Amino acid sequence: MKYEFKKTGEIYTLTVDNLMMDYENHRLLREVESMIIEDSHKYFIISLEKLAFINSVGLSFLIAVLTKSRNAGGETIIVNVNEKITQLLVMTKLHSIFTVCDSTEDGIKTLQASMPSNVIFNN
Question: What three-state secondary structure class fits 46?
């Protein structure tokens, strides 16, 4: 699995190329947990632009990041979702718990709008 974090103000964008491997997902989830606990980062965008499809292991990862960020008072948005993954989110009814945006830029704007006014947003 290859992944990359990019910081924009208080928002971290995570781009992944594979979410099919449980062990690697757990390792990445520990990194996200560390960011939340140690660095107080709680706003995440997960870009799925490099994924052709996703399985239950990947869905579990997305749910785990969403839960951890919300429990810390933040939010997680998924972006760049292809048609197959969108259909899966609808079939599993996960589309009702995730905010899905077309692009990373839209995700950033959506998160900025939902952040408390005391959060300073720096580019």
Answer: strand
Calpha distance 41→35 (Å, rounded): 6
Give the residue from 122, 10, 5, 14 showing the smallest Cα distance to 72: 10
Structure pTM? 0.91
Q: What is the pLDDT along the chain (123 residues), one digit of tens a residue?
A: 899 999 999 999 999 999 999 999 999 999 999 999 988 899 999 999 999 999 999 999 999 999 999 999 999 999 999 999 999 999 999 999 999 999 999 999 999 998 887 655 555
Kindly provide the b/e burial profile for residues 62-100, where b requires at least 16 CB atoms within 10 angstroms of the residue's own CB: bebbbebbeebebbbbbbbbeeebeebbeeeebbeebbb
Phi, psi of 91 (to 5 degrees): -60, -35
